[in-house]
Specification:
The chain contains 7 helices and 8 strands. The strands form 2 sheets. Strands 2-3-1-4-5-6 form a 6-stranded mixed beta sheet, with helices on both faces. Helix content is 30%, strand content 20%. Strand 7 and strand 8 form a beta hairpin. The chain has 2 domains: 211 residues, 3-Layer(aba) Sandwich (Rossmann fold); 36 residues, no CATH class. The radius of gyration is 18 Å and the shape is globular. The longest helix is centred in the middle third of the chain and has 18 residues. By secondary structure, the protein is of the alpha/beta class.
Length: 254
């Protein structure tokens, strides 16, 4: 693994609904001891209300009542974490197609896209859509968590099929680097600590890949002006006004 180029990394979780994005981030935050006791108690209480026996780690980031009631992410949830070697700004993005705009907002300031997918189902249409959006927003480095490998009984053939799909999409969209990591967000294998179920895998964990990922390119003015469009407002005279947040570069009145 290479050394990081900055001690701060902004990354966004992307991928289809129900593939485990919020659960993986919850696992990452719990296993790196980023949560206080009262936060864990709140998650335990919310889990019990939904009839979940163990902690529902997705509740760590899914803070809206509607999100917990429906079991999905709606808005972008920002979380912060730090390890001895790096600091992270995490944007946990929704996977539902109707909330794609929110995903674009979360990915607009990301250095890295952390793609979470169900390894048993491969790259779904919405995951591919998210990757296209990330590429359009200038994200060039991708870390792929092939989740639910416990459901696939840690079959290496399932993992290799995901790797083949990711390599094809990465080449087409022009990503500089992509690494595919077999994980179980529910059990924690290969998220923070190495798992023991996949002795055929010798690569990094998700945390190790994040700690080594390059950062800082999104805000560089040399990469051009960046204004992700969040709203298109129609005027009465027939024109349009575009609204968004300036994320980099310089703008002048023309």
């Amino acid at each position: 693994m290479t050394e990081p180029t900055s001690d701060l990394l902004r990354f966004a979780t992307v991928g289809s609904v129900d593939d485990g994005k919020s659960t993986l981030i919850g696992r990452l935050l719990v296993d790196t001891r980023q949560l206080f006791d009262d936060q864990l108690e709140a998650v335990a209480t919310a889990s019990a209300k939904r009839g979940v026996g163990d902690l529902d780690l997705s509740f760590v980031t899914d803070g809206l009542r509607a999100e917990r009631d429906q079991g999905i992410t709606i808005d972008v949830a920002y979380r912060y974490a730090a390890t001895p070697t790096r600091k992270f700004v995490i944007a946990d993005c929704p996977g539902h197609v109707q909330y794609t705009r929110n995903m674009a907002t979360g990915a607009s300031t990301a250095d890295v896209a952390l793609v979470v997918l169900d390894a048993t189902k491969g790259l779904k249409e919405q995951t591919r859509r998210h990757l296209c959006i990330a590429a359009l927003l200038g994200v060039r480095n991708v870390i792929v968590a092939a989740n639910k490998m416990d459901v696939a009984k840690w079959d290496e053939a399932v993992y290799l099929a995901v790797v083949e799909q990711v390599n094809e999409v990465s080449a087409r969209l022009g990503f500089t680097s992509s690494v595919v990591i077999p994980v179980s967000a529910l059990a924690g294998d290969n998220v923070v600590d190495p798992g023991f179920m996949a002795n055929w895998y010798q690569g990094p964990t998700v945390l190790q890949a994040l700690e080594a990922a390059p950062a800082g390119s999104w805000a560089s003015s040399s990469s051009g002006a960046r204004l992700p469009i969040q709203w298109v407002l129609r005027q009465h005279g027939g024109g349009r006004t575009y609204a968004g947040m300036v994320n980099g570069g310089e703008f002048t009145v023309g």
